[in-house]
Write a structure and sequence with these properties.
about 425 residues, alpha/beta, 9-stranded mixed beta sheet, 4-stranded antiparallel beta sheet, 15 helices, globular
Length: about 425
Amino acid sequence: MDNMSQRGIRSAGQPIGRLMAQALQFPDLISLAAGFVDNGSLPCEESTACMQRLLADPGDLRAALQYGSTAGYPALRSAIIDWTYAKAPECKPPVEQVILTSGSNQLLHLLAEALLDPGDIVLAAAPTYFVFLGTLQAAGARTIGIHADEQGMCLDSLQAKLDELSSLGLAHRVKAIYVIPDFDNPGASTLSLERRHELLHIAMKWRSSHGPLMLIVDNAYQQLRYEGESLPTLRSLHPEADDFIAELGTFSKSFSPGIRVGWGVVPEYLVEPLLDIKSNIDFGSPHFAQHFMYRALIEGEVERHLPRIRTVYQKKLQAMLTALQAEMGDIPGVHWRKPSGGLYVWLTLPEHISASEGAQLWQIATQYGVLYVPGDYCYPAEGQAVEYNTIRLSFGVQSPEGIAVGIQKLAQAVREVI
């Protein structure tokens, strides 16, 4: 270990690999943990059709089999703009500001590399996406958690924390605010329209007083709405969005995670630094996958697939909410959020019960054959206090019947601990 870099040391112990490995290694274990998508509704027919058309076009096939540019296939970047901003065409960015990556996680990593030095500060909801917390930890950044509820990050708490950092002389270290506006992972909250406007106001006020501040907006679950009206993206709500918002998207949840195509719309001044870093890593994400997704998008396969998976996930979400009410509705101190989209439900247990890995509840639940994500994984190291009595439940991969059995086993474990 003496020859390990500080970054290598800081990267150790991330839980995502263990959770995914357990879900794959023990198929009989009812995993309500891994954020996998529904296996039965993966787009096999749509993918077959796209692949056949791609293979039948020798010119396109040769191009797909060749190296591409670091920024990605221009035709797909342009198609993503048209698709993403179809309801707000006035907000379409230049294609030069779109970067294709191997899933949106790669872009999160690139942004951390480009924006952060050790000791710099990123503010995020508490709880938030724990994989990105690991990325920030590896970069040596300080991540500060802001209180959040069903409507997302609480902006009074954000403003209070920013004021505190300014009073401590740390304004120059505040580099970014990370937010998942729609059906966030793990909290299953959606940032209300009022809070979207307020967040933009806070960011602009900070920028005018203290200098650059980036909003990193993760739209991974935007397409997975099952009820209600869609809310506008943060980028579409502000005329100066191009200056300070990096907005991320991915086909992993809306089409297929195995294809590994994500993207980001980033400020013009960030494009070159991000591409310089990316070129040192891969000088271009898999070109064949980008050609494939271009066909899937422009030929309508993505749009035809979305209603199908929304129907599937809505049934699974309802199965989980019904099972929680039936199995835990009478347990004092137990409550959960009821999202209108996404892949997760956020569960809170009585305060004296720890859901942490290795705690009594964890041990009993795994003995009963059910796995979950301990909520404490999802809290930044600073700021809002960690709530150890919380759990992230995923309904993406299990069948409605499996969800019902998993919740019954989890409830049995909770009652035994109580």
